[in-house]
Amino acid sequence: MKMNKIRIFYKLTILLFFVLSCSKKEVKAVKQVLEQETFENKIINPNEYIANKKASTLNWIGRKVSSGHNGTIMLKDGYLNVSADGIIEGEFIIDMNSISVSDLQGGGKASLERHLKNEDFFSVNDFPFAKIIFKANKKNIIKNQLDINAQLTIKDITHPLKFTAKIIEVSPKLKIESDLVFDRSLYDVRYGSGKFFENLGDRLILDEIQIGVDLEFN
Prior knowledge:
Strand content: 35-45%
CATH class of the largest domain: Mainly Beta
Number of strands: 9
Distance between the termini: 77 Å
CATH architecture of the largest domain: Beta Barrel
Number of domains: 2
Helix content: 10-25%
Radius of gyration: 26 Å
CATH superfamily of the largest domain: Lipid/polyisoprenoid-binding, YceI-like
Number of helices: 2
Largest sheet: 8 strands, antiparallel, barrel
Order of helices and strands: HEEEEHEEEEE
Structural class: alpha+beta
CATH topology of the largest domain: Lipocalin
């Protein structure tokens, strides 16, 4: 009698495990379908999209060994063109004269902004604009994200730049977000760089500059 109960319990346990396993697979399948529908709703339609400069924001972060600064910079122009065959082309012009510091006030803010614009950093009098251009294909959009190989030009020096663009919204406005990181030393921005100067100590400024990008298009 005791053995029969054990066999029944064993069979019930296997059956319960099987049912639960099937349920999990079904739930996962439904979830994948729902997610896919959401992603399909955000595919960019063929069109030429002009960046809304007032609604778009670029936030930069620069760091020293134990501290850092942050601020904003503005677009001068920008567009995204999606052709009928799925080719995506984009070009964005950045106004280097618009570099602003957000974490300081008064004289400290004005002083750092002047410093970032002079020859130690971005020489904006000689090089007032930076530029990002890229070409991609809509078929490579996966889960509303597109890995992009671009070209970044600063101070008339151009280097490749890789980043991921995230499609946030396609209607009523097209909205895209991205996080970029570039090495300033590649663009002859040498001040406080360990690649050009030794024994900087606390005056060392890291070469990687982060840019958080939020773009809105008309």
